[in-house]
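Ticket #4471: structure output looks truncated?

Reporter: J.K.
Steps to reproduce: submitted the chain below (128 residues) through the standard prediction queue, then opened the result file.
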Amino acid sequence: MKKILFVCIENSNRSQMAQAFARIHGNDKAEAFSAGSRPSGKINPKSVEAMRSLGYDLIQHYSKSLQEVPQEKFEYVVTMGCGDECPWIPAQHREDWEIPDPRNMEIDDFNKVRDLIEQKVIDLLKKI
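Returned output as attached by the reporter:
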């Protein structure tokens, strides 16, 4: 099973949704983790609602730092538009997805970002 780490700044939106989609679509192919360079300590209620509308309960997740994920080599580390705020993490493959932070977006635009993340996760899983 391949290990994937999704990283954003707060670990409250993008990386949380990416981790959820990797769990939904990854089956037995991948083990997904998420973390933030400056975690907020909470999941954005908009993320919870956006994922609930697809049948996934994001309440089971929590916002965490990079120090709280397994300290091992990942197959993929995916950063999500956090630029210099995302530290280097050992991985066989690295990708940076320039995904806008949906935190303050209206729900329709928020859901467009959610859907973009889902498609990128599906594409990543096809590569593994």
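Triage note (M.O.): checked the attachment and the full token line is present. The chain has three helices and four strands.
Status: closed, working as intended.
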